[in-house]
Amino acid sequence: MYLDDLSYHRPASLQEATALLARDGDEGRPLAGGTDLIVQLRTAARKYRHLVDLKGIPELKTWGYRDSLFCIGATVPLTILDQSEEVQRVFPALWQAIHGLADMQIRNRASLAGNLCNASPAADTAPPLLVYGARVRCVGVGGERIVPLEDFFVGPGRSVLGAGEIVAEIQIPAPATRFGNSPSARVGSAFEKLTRTYNDIALVNAAARVEVDSRGQIQSARVALGAVAARPLRAVAAEEYLVGRSPSPEVIEEAARLAREAASPIDDVRASAAYRRHMAGVLAARALEAALKAAGV
User: Fold this and answer.
1) Does residue 159 surpass a pLDDT of 50?
2) CB 207, CB 96: distance < 8 Å
3) Helices 92-99 & 273-294, crossing angle to 10 degrees?
4) Beta strand extents in 103-165 (DSSP E only)
5) CB contact at 8 A, 254 and 241
6) Is CATH 2.30.30.30 the classification given to domain 3-53?
7) 58-174 has which fold?
8) What pTM was estimated for this model as a whole?
């Protein structure tokens, strides 16, 4: 499909945007940054006839704390988050993923919501957001709903979004409200990525978040993987194993083994399934080690 076959709409409100998308059905598509969408249109990987540009909607441009949530609007460019000292300080794994995503030109256009809505199993921002317990606020003609991120992805290129529904914002619980089991707890998180070349699409990526008490025991843990299954996933068995244990090389090795078992990758032109499965364990271990170090262990 050529780009001149498309109709372009720039609504001024969420209500107008969702009405347009509901009317156009499968032929309509919301546009935030367009860094994935325009490529898909040019290569005919996706066929749409109507683009609904969301960048004219004021409420989708906002970001920051609201109550106990850190909220990021659907059209906030990744560069804004990359340059945010608050994101780097409070959500370092997410900052690491954004900072290493593609290049500056892409980050100037791309949005966090767009990276998620593309629903790539290899999306770099998905594992960090999973370990932070993020959720998405989905808005449609029938109202809105909050979807935990781990329930958002259905499969490659597919999410739970219905006809006329868009992601209005990503919501990340502030650490003290979601994970703060003890005032004396120390928290750390980290992101790891394996690529063939710098800034390439991930062959495997991983994120970890740990909370360690004053005795050095792990109070809570989250481990997430990307590019090793049909959708980004949490390694729940590894998380459960870590809770209540004191960090050691043996504990990290076992957690990495459990993370590896959670992977169900495929063979493709970029890497074999066996290699991806092995590296899922390696990157999970690296992310856990870095997260523990950030927690002062």
Assistant:
1) yes
2) no
3) 130
4) 135-140, 143-148, 153-155, 158-159
5) yes
6) no
7) 3.30.465
8) 0.94
